[in-house]
């Protein structure tokens, strides 16, 4: 008889039966304060085994878990708590002050003690609990396990990252019983999950992909190792110690792995790893190629979003044969490339990408804004706002529709210039976007983050672009900055860079420029 699956975070862990027992007791406690089918339970916690227990507990009584970005402390937190309609919020003690200030008086607060593995990861001392609210530990151990009915529960309500505006709550329907086998098998194939396998979840559980990844892995009986905070060398250590066979990461994590000194990269046995899956943001081709050279052809990518799931995938072999692609439609998914009038464009021509997810993936709406959901759809196909084209059956991303720059009547996709600049020696990260210009309407600005110990000459930047791209794609402004504002998924907050220009209608940026 095999050992029960293990769920860990840092050095702490529980067996899957222990996690399920605590979740069942917590479900009884939640029901005792009036939580039931259709209600929502907010979770303001860092990665923690208890995070998964709260998620499971909510589902047992038909309520939807609402993971909230714990970095949010002001209006963004208040918006998510209010917009979600959560009547209970479970929060780590060190995040309690912000929740206490922003939650409405009728919202019940349950306090979760901060485990030492989390405080250690963040280099802080675990605070004592406040004594003002019921403790998650008590609610997860004292009641009898839930014995009532278990109605279908919606999946977790995920708040989009807000990189282009205020975060929106994505409310998905429950997976129908008749669709569940197909959905599980499709996700397992896409993410290379196997029953009795072992996986690591290195990204925050308040994001869609790591949340779904963790919950599907738990449901399949896998060993699941949560990272309280991503650290490149620690990921390698976990792979070696637990003989991990699959991980799901974002491109920023791949970059950080490559930045490790060679002696650290070679110090760990990662031969157990069968799959590295990445998504959430574009991965520079040179980064992906180096990862394949290191780990072998076990790297795959998928394209999709919190709202509509995944609809294309790409293996290592496909990427090497078709550099830059994000793959072909998976199983019974489909894509269309449409112009502004909704007409399908010829192969090789850029247009807005519309996709239809695989059969059985639950439909969604935005909490409080169903009209926005309708605006994304054409004939049953949904768009995430990305621009791209299909060539030889493979999808290529060009840029986001909201990032497109119109300069003198010409459409410019910043991602092309960003890709060009990432080839320049010493460039670690780059953001290109449009700024106002009295003559052309918009011109380009490039913000560049140098690699550690490197200096970037704006003149060299312009010369590099001039040697590869058309003159109208040359950035007017070149700004060298210590770091770019990226979210932990790797998504770039261009809005934070762009807004000062458009708010003040200035032609020069704050900070160092050429």
UniProtKB/TrEMBL annotation:
- Read off the InterPro entries from this record: AMP-bd_C (IPR025110), AMP-bd_C_sf (IPR045851), AMP-binding_CS (IPR020845), AMP-dep_synth/lig_dom (IPR000873), ANL_N_sf (IPR042099)
Q: Does the keyword Lipid metabolism apply?
A: no
GO molecular function terms attached to this record? medium-chain fatty acid-CoA ligase activity
The AMP-binding enzyme C-terminal domain, residue ranges: 416-491
Q: SUPFAM superfamilies, alphabetically?
A: Acetyl-CoA synthetase-like (SSF56801)
Entry's Gene Ontology BP terms: fatty acid metabolic process
Keyword list, A-Z? Ligase
Stored Pfam families:
AMP-binding, AMP-binding_C
Among Gene3D superfamilies, the record links this protein to: 3.30.300.30, N-terminal domain of ligase-like (3.40.50.12780)
Q: Which residues form the AMP-dependent synthetase/ligase domain?
A: 15-354
Family under the similarity heading: Belongs to the ATP-dependent AMP-binding enzyme family.
Q: What is this protein called?
A: Long-chain fatty acid--CoA ligase
**Source organism of this protein record:** Gordonia lacunae
């Amino acid at each position: 008889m095999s050992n029960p699956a293990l769920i860990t975070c840092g050095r702490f862990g529980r067996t899957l039966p222990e996690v399920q027992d605590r979740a069942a007791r917590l479900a009884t406690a939640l029901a005792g304060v009036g939580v039931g089918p259709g209600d929502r339970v907010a979770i303001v916690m860092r990665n923690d085994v208890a995070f998964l227990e709260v998620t499971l507990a909510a589902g047992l009584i038909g309520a939807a878990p609402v993971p909230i970005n714990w970095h949010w402390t002001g209006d963004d937190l208040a918006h998510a708590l209010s917009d979600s309609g959560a009547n209970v919020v479970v929060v780590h003690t060190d995040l309690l002050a912000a929740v206490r200030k922003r939650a409405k008086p009728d919202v019940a607060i349950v306090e979760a003690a901060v485990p030492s593995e989390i405080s250690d990861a963040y280099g802080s001392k675990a605070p004592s609990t406040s004594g003002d609210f019921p403790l998650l530990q008590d609610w997860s151990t004292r009641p009898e396990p839930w014995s009532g009915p278990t109605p279908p529960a919606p999946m977790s309500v995920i708040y989009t990252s807000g990189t282009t505006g205020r975060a929106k709550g994505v409310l998905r329907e429950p997976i129908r019983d008749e669709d569940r086998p197909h959905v599980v098998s499709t996700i397992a194939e896409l993410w290379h999950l196997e029953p009795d396998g072992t996986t690591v979840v290195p990204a925050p559980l308040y994001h869609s992909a790591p949340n779904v990844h963790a919950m599907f892995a738990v449901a399949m009986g896998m060993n699941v190792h949560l990272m309280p905070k991503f650290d490149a060398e620690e990921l390698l250590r976990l792979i070696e110690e637990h003989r991990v066979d699959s991980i799901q990461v974002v491109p920023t994590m791949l970059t950080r792995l490559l930045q490790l000194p060679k002696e650290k990269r070679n110090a760990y046995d990662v031969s157990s790893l069968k799959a590295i899956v990445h998504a959430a943001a574009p991965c520079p081709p040179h980064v992906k190629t180096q990862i394949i050279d290191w780990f072998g052809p076990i790297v795959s990518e998928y394209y999709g979003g919190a709202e509509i799931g995944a609809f294309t995938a790409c293996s290592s072999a496909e990427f090497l044969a078709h550099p830059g692609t994000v793959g072909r439609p998976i199983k019974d998914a489909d894509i269309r490339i449409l112009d502004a009038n909704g007409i399908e464009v010829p192969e090789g021509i850029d247009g807005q990408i519309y996709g239809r997810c695989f059969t059985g993936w639950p439909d969604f709406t935005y909490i409080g804004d169903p009209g926005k959901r309708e605006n994304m759809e054409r004939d049953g196909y949904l768009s995430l706002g990305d621009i791209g084209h299909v060539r030889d059956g493979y999808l290529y991303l060009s840029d986001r529709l909201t990032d497109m720059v119109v300069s003198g009547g010409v459409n410019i996709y910043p991602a092309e210039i960003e890709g060009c600049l990432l080839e320049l020696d010493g460039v670690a990260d780059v953001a290109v976007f449009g700024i106002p210009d009295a003559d052309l309407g918009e011109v380009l600005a490039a913000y560049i983050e140098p690699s550690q110990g490197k200096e970037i000459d704006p003149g060299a930047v312009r010369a590099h672009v001039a040697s590869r791209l058309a003159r109208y794609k040359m950035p007017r402004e070149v700004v060298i900055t210590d770091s770019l504002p990226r979210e932990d998924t790797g998504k770039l907050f261009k809005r934070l860079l762009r807004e000062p220009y458009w708010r003040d209608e200035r032609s020069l940026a704050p900070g160092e420029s050429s």
